[in-house]
Amino acid sequence: MSESRPSPGSGDGVVVLSLPFEGRWLAMNSPARRVPSHGTDLLGSRYAIDFVGVDDRRRTATHRDWGSYFGTEPVERFFAFGQPILAPADGRVVQVHDGEVDHVARRSQLSLVHYALRQAGRLRQGVAAIAGNYVTIALPGNDTFVSLVHLRAGSPQVAVGDVVTTGQPIAECGNSGNSTQPHVHLQVMDNLDLSVARGIPLAFRHFREWTGRSERSRVEESGIPGENSVVEALKP
Fold it and tell me: Which of 113, 171, 175, 205 could cross-link to 156 by cystine, CB 3.0-4.6 Å?
């Protein structure tokens, strides 16, 4: 059953972060729409959110061809692929996983159905098959963790033990793990052991948001991007 969206504020358990990128990105699987946001509590993903890079026309890729409708597509045509992913908060790096390949992208219904049928098999393969390449940062206090997932192979720029600051480049957006097109998945959780980790509500600070197809935007000082809204981080 879906819950009402958590409202950010002090003392309510919501972790407020900075958006982990520059430019415009489309919010998908947002906890503003439903909780659990991805339809499951597994792997600490209860309040997770996905972001897909777009241009000012809300396109996720430069163009479409036969592969867009009937097959697969090269990841290089997607705006998100290779874009810098930034630390969303100050903290200490506690996990870095690299070496998972970046898959071809899938937008066609035919390829998506085939991909979905293999989901159970990926779950049985373990965390790497789902998350792909990822970086996890322990937030101050060391009892709350933020993970950035589906990173580009070979792109992590940090190592376990590194101290990072908000806005510092840590990797690039990729299409590794359980991902059908390049995007970044972000979640906050209470444990590094994903078999027992519980998701923690999150929000983002100081961003511009375009909802629906409107060309008008609004500035949010703290909030959760709505489903299918486009967001852009604002400078402090």
Answer: 171
Q: At 64, is the secondary structure helix, strand, or coil? A: coil
pLDDT tens profile 135-179: 999 999 989 999 999 999 999 999 999 999 999 999 999 999 989
The whole-angstrom separation of Cα 36 and Cα 206 is 24
User: What is the chain's mean pLDDT, rounded?
Assistant: 89
Q: Is 97 helix (H, G, I), strand (E, B) or coil?
A: strand
Q: Determine the Cα–Cα distance for residues 76 and 61; give it in Å rounded to an integer.
A: 9
pLDDT over 80 (residue 4) = no
Query: How far is 85 from 233, CA to CA, in rounded Å?
Result: 12
Question: What pLDDT score does 115 carry?
Answer: 61
Tokens of 200: 């923690």
Measured in whole angstroms, the distance separating CA 171 from the mean position of its chain's CA atoms is 13
> From CA 159, how far away is CA 170, in angstroms rounded?
9
Q: Is 94 helix (H, G, I), strand (E, B) or coil?
A: strand
- Show Cβ contacts of residue 224 under 8 Å, excluding neighbours closer than 6 positions: 5, 6, 8, 30, 31, 32, 49, 202, 203, 204
Q: Give start and end residues of each alpha helix (H) in 22-108.
A: 66-70
Q: Considering only 104-108, 113-117, 186-190, which range has the smallest mean pLDDT?
A: 113-117
pTM of model > 0.85: yes
Name the one residue in this structure whose structure tokens are 């992590």.
156
Residue 63 CB coordination number (10 Å): 8
d(CA 98, CA 109): 29
How far apart, in whole angstroms, are the C-alpha atoms of residue 214 and residue 208?
13
